[in-house]
Amino acid sequence: MSPLRAPQLVPVNVDAGAPTGPLEAWRQGLGHGGINSLPLPETVVGGVARLRPRLIRIFIQEFFRVYPDHGCYDWTRLDPYMAALQRTGARVMAALCIKPPPLYPTVNESVWRPTDLGEWQHLVATMVHRYSVAQPIVTHWEIGNEVDIGENGGSPYLITAGADYAEYYASTVEAVRRAYPQARVGGPAAASVHSPVVAGFLQECGRHRWPLDFVSWHLYHSDPALHLAHLGTARRLLTQAGLEEVEVMITEWSRRLFDGVSVEEDAFDPRRAAAIATTAIRFADARVDGSFYYHIWDQTCYADDFRPFFSPAGVANMLRHWNEVPHRLGMFGVAGEARPQYFVYWMLSRLGSQRLASHSGHADVATLAGSDETGLRVLLSNYSVEGSADRVAELRYEGLPPGVKHLSVWRIDGGQRWDGADASLRLRPTERREVDTNGAFQCQVWLPGDSVALVELRPAPTP
Questions:
Q1: 149: which of 197, 232, 442, 456 lies 20 to 30 Å off by Cα?
Q2: Do 140 and 94 touch, CB atoms closer than 8 A?
Q3: pLDDT per residue over 43-55, tens digit each?
Q4: What is the pTM for the complete model shown?
């Protein structure tokens, strides 16, 4: 539909003179891994570095083969993987998912106790020392990953009782903190916050006062309201366990999975980007301590990586979901091509350090405004679960300092206005012009259904 025939004008009020506190867009972080052991390519490293993330959540999975025999360590796979992450400028949250054959000689997802607890703890402490002390890469250690669904969630562990997971967690965290007392520790990285493992684990932590800095869970769904509902569940469980001070972290999230159809064009559907942008804005509104969009780079799953520690059915499941009907969640495709989701996080990274009061006149148009010494920016996302309609946002600014400014608008829609896989990764603006403001100012921005926009006002240089 042409903007000239847009069915609805939506007022968006922004008060440049009403800061509401730090914006902390960096809390909307990134996740990666669990598919193969290849380090991030340099083009992806550079692209992620431009987003200035503070924390990237990863899996240290068994396919890194760091402990092939008793007392024997092999870092040849994991070292370059960690080095590439370090070059993004971010620190790392590492989900510990290893299951080395010397301590787990049987391939069975239900076996979670190592054959020698002391040797397990020594292995964990050695790894933590290498990547948190000798190399300051990992600041957060998450114990396990989706243990409530085991191999179906890409984890070598299936632990269905909260008390069992708490036992595994406590013994592992003891080794983590022995090697690096400042480590932030948490779990259970559950596939669902409603899993009995979560409630049972939190009750055990509250009862024994075990170290717990964050509780974590995952959700793949396209409804932002459901993400917020699960956040409310986690906070209620923490209160019931007497752990109100513990942080809440969604360590994997994205749009819904399991569509049953997967073609390359799906990865560039702007509706995906709009769902992600709206959810990230709602997370900021709800003051989530950390969320990690999954994931950075789509990858090939190699069967030989998983056969030593997954059942044949588990291997087939991984191949199905990452090779045959891939989810195409990555900010970058397998070949390194940029996807719309990347530019959602580029927009978030540009908002600035100070949040400003903003209000949208329509529930389907989410807004987040911020500023810093370089200017003022407003992020807009036009998305509805039931179906999104074309709209025009009328931005109504108050409290602006007088003077000439540069107005720029960038939009993510079906147009794919970016330089693809090259080093620039530049989103081309849809509008650029000079404006003069005097306290109040208005402008209109075209928001097709399922689109995301960033509107920027920067002071013009003094002649």
A1: 232
A2: yes
A3: 999 999 999 999 9
A4: 0.96
